[in-house]
Target: DNA2/NAM7 helicase helicase domain-containing protein
Amino acid sequence: MSYYLNSFILPLIEETRADLCSSMKILAEAPVCEMTDINFSEDYKPPHDLLYQIEMKTVADSDRKGNTYEPETGQLIALTEKRPTCIGDLNNREKSYLIALIKRDGTYVYGIYGFAVYLMNVTTNLRIWNALNSDPDGPDIHVVKQLLQPDSAVRAVVYSRPFVMCVGENCAQCFSNERYSIDVSNIGAVIRSFDLNEAQEEGVLSCLAARECSHQNTVKLIWGPPGTGKTKTVGSLLFALCKRKCKTLTCAPTNVAILEVASRFLILVMKSIDYHTYGLGDIVLFGNKKRMSIHDHDDLLDIFLDYRVNILAKCFAPLSGWKHHLELVIGLLENPEDEYLKCEEKRDYEIDGDDACLNEENELQAIASLQTNLGKKNMSQDPKICKQNEWMKIVNNTLRENRLCFKEANKSKYNKQEKKDFLSHENKLQRLT
Model:
């Protein structure tokens, strides 16, 4: 087992090095943000845990698409004293640079200390590294052992297309019976309608039959090069499991992979339901919405967990949700006359108040304009009249302000009374229920 896991370490290192080298070559196009301060972190423990707290100005720059760059956990960045325009700027003897890995998202303030240049995201690489260096005797390695042990009776079935399914030893007691029952059932007809080839259909039916076995836990491995229909097969399998009311957890090493599987699965589900989104309650997609770019996939919003939480939060809001509106309907049905009078009173007040205020403002503006014109004409004629016009203007402005304040005070008083009546009505409903 150790030999098998170690055989992947050097290829992983080489793949990471190649990706980093490619990022270095397009350094001029990389997102950049300004650093404002660098301090020792609370977890700073040399010589191994060299952790720092770096504050950044995230609005400093954006890429060519106009997106502001904000460093995220798992990203590899270069810390430089000036903004690099090419890879040669990093090799400058006078201006050095350091490579840093973001462990946690921090706070951001304004200023400038240096630059953080995005290189690559190593989240997936770190996950693979941790899996390869896991405890060989730990529980997580059981699945791999079951596939690799020489006495597991693993067989490979290869068809015309480059699609291979490796199957662990099936249960001799129930596999053939379950396989036959699924094949002749309605779900078997549904699977055959997915336009799968022979290998893909065999993979789906075999997994369904293994799921029904209660004697042992079976591991199935479906693999093949790109373009051989693995995602299509997994989507068909998920749909079949959903039809059989089977709780299923689907994981993927990258966000792109999980979005692709979810899209394929959702397409099959939407074709089978009679009403638009009714029936999607048992399907949930969750993850980091920013890294998944979920807003670019409108078709997946109906099953995305964060989107559902926001919708339910609005539905259960105490002053604007379902309960509030149901209480209003109950109040209208129990006391329709009182509710009607309140509605009429509020409507008349808003209309009369707004019209009166508008008329007052127009009249005062007209008087002020007339007085200004008269003042200009009489300014050179009689200083006494000019002085009177100035005082008249001050009085009119004062009256106008007082009327507006009075209107606002009355409106506030009315709103307070309305709120008091609403609370009294709500308490009454609570006592009744």
Summary: The CA atoms of residues 174 and 214 lie 9 Å apart. The two ends are 66 Å apart (CA to CA). The longest strand covers residues 32-40. The chain has three domains: 2-130, 144-314, 325-432.
